[in-house]
Amino acid sequence: MTVPATDARVQYIGRTYRSDTGVVFSHPGVTIRARFWGDALRVQLHDAGSGGEVGTNFFDVVIDGAPPRQLAVPAGRSTQVLATGLEVGLHTVELTRRTESLVGHSELVALEVHGELREPPARAGLRMEFVGDSITCAYGTDVALVPDSPSWVAPTYTSKNQNPRRSYGWLTAAQLGAEPSLICYSGHGVYRNLDMGTSGLIPAIYERAVPDHPVSWDFSQESPDVIVVNAGTNDTFAGSGTDAYLPDEAAFKSAYRAFLLRLRALHPRAHIVCTMGSMTDGYKALEQNGTVTSVHVGDWLTELVTERQQQGDARVYRHVMAVQIPEVDGVGEDWHPSFATHQKMADALSQFIRDVMQP
């Protein structure tokens, strides 16, 4: 039985949009879930990845709750076996995208069921969004290396080592029994990106179903209960060498303030947690001719949250995230947080959210 991707019995968790030929998505952690009576399931995919170590999209396949199996998807149109040789009966299969938008989008065209598709499982009652950059995207989380000297060079990005299941967002949602949606893009910031550009900023990405596609996300769907914004790292790290590259307080605050206003307008009842980390706490200093000039983006976040609270928004909070300790917990690719650091981030964030959501 061939079932189109748009069939109501095919369940999607995370951001997607319908195209003329299927359902398109690109954020890490987007999950396709199907329940069927039978013994095998295949999917037809159309993948925009370019291939190679950076351009190959990877997925996790989970059958009936078993440990995930990693699946590499070739560019173009392909049919992938997700389950075969099962005992005839009722089964649930999940296909979760591991890689982020920079690798290229994916499109589910159809499911091929050796049996009969049934209604999908019930979704979690608590919905959470995690909005941010490469840290939220789980960049390099399948790698953990301890720097052995000041000159040590971390390995660079490979798509196979991006794993949202080992991210602070996914782990936090699991601890709270929630359904996570990761909305993120490596290298992007609130008012400027890591490369000093200003296209595809995080507030703009939030408006779209797929970051690099001009398709708006449908906000008429259910609002999240909790939104965690982990942004500002790229605004801090962008550039080096002159005062021009220190973050601009007025520009950052203006962009972040507008984003908070937009989030509140879209989601009047959501708890909004503003955090940053754990590659930096937002401090950046520049020394020129013996004079040190410094800024602290983390302090700016605290001031912005205080400002919102003073204006009467009782559901916006500032969570201070600890900076990673590479010599203790190791680092992932390009000095990104390791799984051990993500676990620490999740433990602290989960407890914080439990505390603020208490009646």
List keywords for this structure.
globular, 359 residues
What this model shows, in words?
- This protein is of the alpha+beta class and 359 residues long.
- It has helices spanning 52-55, 168-176, 202-206, 233-237, 249-266, 297-310, 326-329, 339-356; strands at residues 2-4, 11-13, 17-18, 23-25, 31-47, 57-63, 69-73, 76-83, 89-97, 106-118, 126-132, 178-184, 226-230, 271-275, 283-288, 291-296, 316-318.
- Strands 1, 2, 3, 4, 5, 6, 7, 8, 9 and 10 form a ten-stranded antiparallel beta sheet that branches.
- The longest helix is centred in the C-terminal third of the chain and has 18 residues, at 249-266.
- The protein starts with a strand and ends with a helix.
- The model has no long low-confidence stretch (mean pLDDT 96).
